[in-house]
Specification:
Number of domains: 2
Structural class: alpha/beta
CATH architecture of the largest domain: 3-Layer(aba) Sandwich
Distance between the termini: 6 Å
CATH superfamily of the largest domain: Aspartate/ornithine carbamoyltransferase
Radius of gyration: 19 Å
Largest sheet: 5 strands, parallel
Shape: globular
CATH class of the largest domain: Alpha Beta
Number of helices: 11
Amino acid sequence: MKHLLSTTDLSKDDALLLLDTAAQMAATQSREIKKLPTLRGRTVVNLFFEDSTRTRISFETAAKRLSADVINFSAKGSSVSKGESLKDTALTLHAMGADAVVVRHWASGAPYQLAHAGWLDAAVLNAGDGTHQHPTQALLDAFTIRRHLVGRRGGGDPDGVGADLAGLRVAIVGDVLHSRVARSNVALLRTLGADVTLVSPPTLVPVGVETWPCRTSYDLDATLADWQPDAVMMLRVQRERMSGGTGGAFFPSPLEYTRYYGLDARRLGLLPDHTIVMHPGPMNRGLEISAEAADSDRAVIVEQVANGVAVRMAALYLLLAGDHSAEGNDL
């Protein structure tokens, strides 16, 4: 395992290995001493060209829990703001001896270029590139779904270790057009055997979505009431990627978006008792999700954040200290 760039690169065995390793990492985080010596002497660089709170802190926490040295690099206030190219930034990191580079970039494909251009000899982890991919977010989502719907309800291992998601139904709702989370989750959830339905306004559905391995619906009420999903994943409305930052080019008003595509108490009542509510964060409360839904007993949103640390620990471990018999492959 050399890089983690996209969920489309993951086989079912790859995905299960990451999830099962994350379960082992999560078990260590309930101990009094959470730190492991696994990556002592290794250097992990967080290279963020876009603003982030959850993902950057999660990767930093994961690396430090594995005893790696961590360098946080933000494009703002760095040489990048003075015009330095991605190539020259990568060459600098190579000269510093980085063992792994966690990169978030506004341009789709930037992590792939870092991994394959020959500029640095380090593992590259994609922490989100444009509207393309966010593989560790999809992995932590799958980990959360498996723990709740397979492990805790299946009568076997409480984390669902070794199990896939066959037979589970997941609805992904909202701004699919701008969402790397949606793209990553559709690919990974299908690889793990789940059925996926995207629910979105027609204006927020990507061109070519008919080639994705999922269903598409424009009717949230019908999907919740008739399809009866096991998990409902609400997507953030990414107004910063829309014309003028208001969403006006894609839907008439925030009120109308909420009326047709927001998750509220009434829509929670349409769901089976076991259905969980998810959100990648940060949430626009009152837009795609109400406070009642976000704070309900069904919501596992805070747990997703905690699970993100375990999943990223697993990814770093497998990249830097795991079995390298298949080294050279991108996972």
